[in-house]
Amino acid sequence: MSSPFSGPDRPSGGPPRLPTPPSGWPIGSYSRYEEAQRAVDHLADNDFPVQDVTIVGVDLMLVERVTGRLTWGRVLGTGAASGAWFGLFVGVLLSLFSSGPGPAFGPILVGLVTGVVFGIVFAAAGYASARGVRDFSSASQLVAGRYDVLCQPRNAERGRDMLARLAMRPPSEGGTAD
């Protein structure tokens, strides 16, 4: 029987080289990642061979949380800020190679001003080309509907028993070792 946890494509002790579906028997299922992480931490604290364990997110969703409305002011301000950082970086690099006694603030100032101007121009061009199609800013996150903890068959029964005992503990005891 072949497994993604062994074979010629896997370096000893490391993860599979190619994307492979997880294997193993389910030993726990949790609605939040923190709960699955707590379960694996409990196994590790109790000398369980956690290299046989995998946390698998099931029913994946891409959640995009809208953080605000985009306006010309916000777009130009963000462009100016990002351009300023890049310009400052370039200016500092140029000042390191300037010949002359003492600190050279000229290249830093030129880099900063040039960066702000180009940042504003590029941000304005990008926003104008969108023509109001996406007038909001957002942050994306990949989340799962549930998190299953899988274990290789050789230790699955022991892991399932350990997690069952963890589930019977009062919440105040947490995931600490006995």
Automatic annotation (TrEMBL):
Residues 13-24 have a biased composition (Pro residues). Residues 1-24 are annotated as: Disordered. The chain crosses the membrane at residues 75-98, 104-128. Residues 27-100 form the General stress protein 17M-like domain. The keyword Transmembrane applies. Pfam families: YflT (PF11181). Keywords: Membrane, Transmembrane, Transmembrane helix. Residues 1-12 have a biased composition (Low complexity). InterPro entries: GSP17M-like_dom (IPR025889). This is General stress protein 17M-like domain-containing protein.
